[in-house]
Amino acid sequence: MNWTFILSLAIHWFMAIAFFMLIPFPFFIAGIKGESAIYIKKLYRPIMLFAHIALIGTIVTGIVLVEEWLSLWTVVVVLLWGIIATFLGLTAKSLRQSLASGEDDPRILFRSSMLSVASFIMFIIKFFDWF
User: Fold this and answer.
1) 8 A C-beta contact, residue 87 and residue 111
2) What is the pLDDT of residues 57-79, one digit of tens each?
């Protein structure tokens, strides 16, 4: 193995922490109301920013790590990254609007739930190399 591969792998796994931190967000949104909900939303604002940076970082390092572009595993991972990117952006937008208006946005629960499901599926694929 060369240093580029090892460094890319380390950065790739470090960036995955951002998506791991997003998984409990819909549970917090569904179960916590009032001032605590506002606190959780404010807490997750920088985590969403880190996740956006991590999205770019994991895609770049993932390109370095790919060994076979036409495998089923690669196609599934690329599709999942597209889904994660979409719901990350939609969740961040709903979070920003919810904090600005001070009201609960029902879309934030659905969008963050889909983001969590896609992230969880990605972790399953990464940890259990089934393909």
Assistant:
1) yes
2) 999 998 988 888 888 888 988 99
Integer angstrom CA distances of residue 36 from 19, 120, 122: 22, 25, 30
C-alpha triplet 48, 52, 55: angle, nearest 5°: 130
pLDDT digits (tens, 9 = 90+) for 45-55: 999 999 999 99
pTM higher than 0.85: yes
- Count of Cβ atoms closer than 10 Å to residue 14 Cβ: 13
CB burial of 44-62 (b: ≥16 within 10 Å; e: otherwise) equals beebbebbeebbebbeebb
